[in-house]
Amino acid sequence: MSHLEDLLTQMIRIPSVNPRGAGEPAETALAEFVADWGRAHGLETSLHEVADGRCNVIATLPGDTERPLLLETHLDTVETEGMTVDPFEARVADGRLYGRGSCDAKGPLAVFLTAMADLAAAGPRPQTVTLAGVVDEEHVYRGVQAMRAMDLAPFGAIVGEPTSMRMVTAHKGCMRCRITARGPGGHSSEPWGKTNPFDTAARIIDFLHGEHTAELDANPRPLIGPPSMTVTMIEGGSGPNVLPESVTMTVDRRTVVGEDPHAVWAELRDLLAARFGAQVEVAEPHVVDYALETDPADPFVSGFAGVLGAHGLDPAPKGVGHGTDASKIALDGVPSVVFGPGAIAQAHMPDEFVPLAELHEAHKVVAAALRTPFAPAIGGAL
């Protein structure tokens, strides 16, 4: 087993399931492991508590630039219920390494760490490299927001996620909120003249998935297409013979660059109020995220594309519909790309895995990128 596979195996065996809202230090054992492993391989490492004992880990390899190249990925994974493989065994079979996080995103984390360790051992170091392993990416992004507050001032960022070895430069953001339809309730044997919230909910869903979606389709963006609106959950009713007093729907509104998630929510609230009146309430968003649209002509981005091409990989920029930490990093004016082994279709799956061939190829790409002088040396113009 290679040192890359061995490292990934060890990290999969350390559970780091996101606790969602619970106050548990879920990722900290993994952060401590990464810090210890990094120090043993020549990196400067530190832990930074974000909330509830949950810690980000920062590892730095000083080089010949004042501003670092940032490698960022997340420590947390989604839940393990329903998995068809042992989530923490880290089993290898048929050229794949199975386990929760193997693809999303401990695989990219292992790639980043081993590439930095190789550079620490061999040199030279044309640029300073900083790795941030952050908490809470699978929930409300508190880890990356805490990292941004550290003012690391990177000149560029590679965000580790499963991208099937493509360079992602654009993705959608999101706004998630709950819409509640209300009615007077009552006995189900006497429904006449009463508003049934399920009827209202059905009309809302028909509008959102029909006329409103058609309006969104008229605003496509390069690589990622138009915004979207999807009702993903519906809850209501208290008994089979009781008219419900309320029905609540959760909506997932995917945003594109140029849309502010909070403004999108306000527009939706006003639109539904105008159509359905006071019987409908739109709660403030419980999740917001921003879209990413990195300029492929940026020198850092085009430089990374050149590294991909030199390894026989497709250097063309790609867009995806899901979100990543890259969009938050880009808010600070940092050109950001998303890259890593494995496919997003395999992330969160009952048999999550990463192909070993892609894992090793990703290591070669990142190792080459760390040796590519993207930024001016210390003393040069920025």
Automatic annotation (TrEMBL):
The keyword Hydrolase applies. Gene3D superfamilies: 3.30.70.360, Zn peptidases. It comes from Murinocardiopsis flavida. Residues 169-275 form the Peptidase M20 dimerisation domain. Keywords: Hydrolase, Metal-binding. This is Acetylornithine deacetylase. It holds the Pfam family Peptidase_M20. PANTHER family: ACETYLORNITHINE DEACETYLASE (PTHR43808). GO terms for molecular function: hydrolase activity; metal ion binding.
